[in-house]
Amino acid sequence: MNSNLRMIVAGGGTGGHFFPAQAICKSLRSQGVKVKFMGSQYGIESNYYKNNTSEATLLNIRGLQRNHNLDSYVKNLFFPLRFVQSYLKSRKIINEFKPHVVIGTGGYSCGLPLLAAIHKGIKTVIQEQNSFPGMTTRKLGIKVNRVCIAFEDAKIYLKKNVILTGNPIREDIRLLDKVTAKKSYKFDPVMPVLAILGGSQGSVPFNHHFLNHFNQYVKSNIQILWQCGKKDFPKLKELNSHQHIHILPFTEKMDVFYSAADLIVSRAGALALSEMALLGKAMVLIPLPCSAGDHQNINAQTFLRTGGAVLVHQNLLASGALEQAIMDLIQNSKKITAMEENSKKIGIKDATEKIINVIMEIAKS
Predict the structure, then answer these.
(1) How far apart are CA 333 and CA 6, in angstroms?
(2) What is residue 146's three-state secondary structure?
(3) Are 351 and 274 spatial neighbours (Cβ–Cβ below 8 Å)?
(4) DSSP annotation of 349
(5) 318-349 pLDDT, tens per residue?
(6) Do domains 6-167+349-363 and 178-346 have the same CATH topology?
(7) Domain limits of the chain?
(8) What is the rounded distance in angstroms from the CA atom of residue 165 to the CA atom of residue 167?
(9) Could you tell me if 291 and 270 are in contact, meaning their C-beta atoms sit under 8 angstroms apart?
(10) Best CA proximity match to 337, nearest among 263, 267, 286, 275
């Protein structure tokens, strides 16, 4: 056990940065490390830590707004003040908690704790999820002790201290029997299942497109498993009356969802890609067009090059490119099998354990 060690894990804003941070926190605590989490009052983490506790501190910091409207301009005016306040609060927390290592998992909420730790000479580690590193990693990567990357392509943008570890994956993500998984959704186990995954909140463009095209798939004997998000579920739930469609707002049982799928249409968020790669799933990726630094497109390009995925850009949806790509794959089981094998090659097992080993090595060096 490592009960004498103290560490700060900072990261959030979005689930892509927050959930890796939580996986690292959980693993460190299981080894006896005293851990404090730091995030933002405005990120997804605020739903999990509504009040600051002994285990968490939420900073008054939010990312720069990229929209060109009055509300965004006003919010950006306060950024310098929030930056200074949050930096000083980060130093205060570090002075009080005296961490041996500060770990950042990306997003605007981890930059200031990392920066404060660097200025105080405390050891630091960054866990980067994407093929194209985020701004925090690009700016501070050269100054930290180690950067744990999820994809080999990230090395192109980082100069030193880099180690390939993969992304922390939830413990419940595992491949189940496909027939059993299909039957859990009342699907015919023989017919192919197309899974639609627009992220935990769903995707409005995905929902709009498939609402207008689902009949084309059903007529081709393709079953549809569709995570649409809570917002659009009320207007889409009537589709559940269809024999070959199962639509749900959200599911905690992602292992069943992935396992039932013969082909997955998905955004190209780093965590979902890492989960699907670990399970060896064939994918049609539609990157979010406005993702920061176009990182989803770069993530997708990684899987396209290695043969684990087909890429369709969102602006081509109206052209029928998605339907053509899906039909070509569904009708070619050998192609899907090859994609599954290529996808599995990118997946990294025991990523959380690898990251923790790096952190412990830095802490004890």
Answers:
(1) 51
(2) strand
(3) yes
(4) T
(5) 999 999 999 999 999 999 999 999 999 999 99
(6) yes
(7) 6-167+349-363, 178-346
(8) 7
(9) no
(10) 263
The superfamily in CATH containing domain 178-346 is Glycogen Phosphorylase B; (3.40.50.2000)
Per-residue pLDDT tens over the stretch 81-107: 777 898 999 999 999 999 999 999 988
User: SS3 sequence, 217-228?
Assistant: HHHCCCEEEEEC
> What is 6-167+349-363's CATH topology?
Rossmann fold (3.40.50)
Beta-carbon contacts of 70 under 8 Å, excluding residues fewer than 6 positions away, are none
Neighbours of 332 (CB within 10 A): 12
Three-state secondary structure call for residue 291: coil
Residue 218, amino acid: V
The two structure tokens encoding residue 36: 């404090």
Tokens 């923790």 identify what position?
356
pTM equals: 0.89
Phi, psi of 311, deg, nearest 5: -110, 130
Torsion angles phi and psi, residue 62, rounded to 5? -140, 155
Q: Where are the alpha helices (DSSP H) in 241-311?
A: 254-260, 270-279, 295-305
Report how far residue 175's alpha carbon sits from residue 302's, in angstroms, rounded to the nearest whole number. 23
Dist CA 50 CA 53 (whole Å): 9
3-class state of residue 129 by DSSP: coil
Which of 30, 197, 43, 47 is closest to 105 using CA atoms? Answer: 43
How far apart (Å, rounded) are the C-alpha atoms in residues 90 and 86? Answer: 6
Distance CA 283, CA 325 (A): 11
Order of all β-strands in the sheet with 223-227: 245-248, 223-227, 193-197, 263-266, 283-285, 309-311
